[in-house]
Design brief:
Elements: H1 2-57, H2 66-71, E1 88-92, H3 97-105, E2 110-112, E3 115-119, E4 125-129, E5 139-143, H4 152-161, E6 169-174, H5 193-202, E7 212-217, E8 232-237, H6 240-248, H7 267-271
Parallel strand pairs: 1-2, 1-5, 5-6, 6-7, 7-8
Antiparallel strand pairs: 3-4
Length: about 270
């Protein structure tokens, strides 16, 4: 009886080991199939993205729906459907005034706001938002410029004040995130000032429409999105497609850097590894 019992145990162990091996083989085949499917899907997505980017750079993208609007970057303001356009009051700093006027000239949906930028005798800012009661319940944007550390405080004062004027929504456009390269601590004692600036911006008060939207162009590292708190909604955009478009217009576009020739390949060629 003991011999039979040992034989049964042995068979049970062998059966279990066989089942484990078969299970591993099936799992491996399934994993390979999933990886292949992901690769095909990834290639399809990259090809579609490349096609959209090429059309965008060539100026051949026409927007007819909200879905098209969401997947296309750097579009003409005239190409945005009328039902997606909203009237906006755009405030600006003295440094960004030329850009703000160009934005307002693109259409009738953007009106420029007016801020008095002065300083007291001690050098601290003396600020005033003109027609503050007239911007109630309206969509408000602010075109900032943090290129000079000495001008950040006065802009932060305005940025904190605008959402409290009973406006419908508030969007901060920050073309340059100056502390982006100081985003990590490599040695104990280093100060990641990118995190500090993100914390300052994360404390912008909400407006009637909800949290503040912060649009930042070409931030140094994408992980910096996690430096912002839940009280704001950061959105990271890129001006690289516009740069590529401008480079294609240069007569010496094949020699755009002093270090050597750079050939601008179509996005589809980049996807294919050429």
């Amino acid at each position: 009886m003991q011999s039979c019992s040992c034989t049964a145990d042995t068979l049970l162990r062998r059966t279990s080991l066989t089942a484990v091996r078969v299970g591993r083989q099936r799992a491996s085949c399934l994993l390979k199939a999933m990886n292949n499917a992901d690769a095909r899907l990834q290639r399809q997505i990259m090809a579609a993205t490349a096609n959209t980017l090429n059309k965008t750079l060539e100026g051949r993208v026409s927007l007819t729906s909200i879905d098209d609007y969401r997947i296309v970057n750097n579009i003409d303001a005239s190409a945005v459907p009328e039902d997606l356009k909203k009237d906006c009051i755009l405030f600006y700093t003295p440094d960004t005034e030329p850009l703000a006027r160009k934005i307002a000239a693109e259409g009738s949906h953007v009106q420029l706001g007016n801020i008095r930028w002065k300083c007291f005798n001690d050098g601290f800012p003396d600020l005033f938002v003109h027609h503050a009661t007239e911007i109630r319940n309206k969509h408000v944007g602010f075109l900032a410029s943090f290129h000079d550390p000495g001008k950040i405080f006065e802009q932060i004062s305005i940025i904190y004040a605008l959402p409290r004027l009973f406006i419908g929504s508030f969007t901060l456009v920050l073309p340059f995130f100056p502390t982006g390269t100081a985003e990590r601590v490599e040695t104990e004692g280093d100060v990641a000032t990118a995190f500090t600036l993100a914390r300052i911006l994360s404390n912008i008060p909400p407006s009637r429409g909800g949290p503040t939207s912060i649009v930042i162009f070409d931030i140094h590292a994408l992980q910096e999105r996690f430096y912002f708190g839940d009280a704001v909604l950061p959105l990271f955009e890129s001006g690289i497609p516009l740069l590529l478009e401008r480079l294609k217009q240069l007569p010496d576009k094949e020699k755009v850097s002093p270090g050597g020739a750079v050939t601008l390949l179509p996005a589809a060629a980049l996807v294919q590894g050429q």
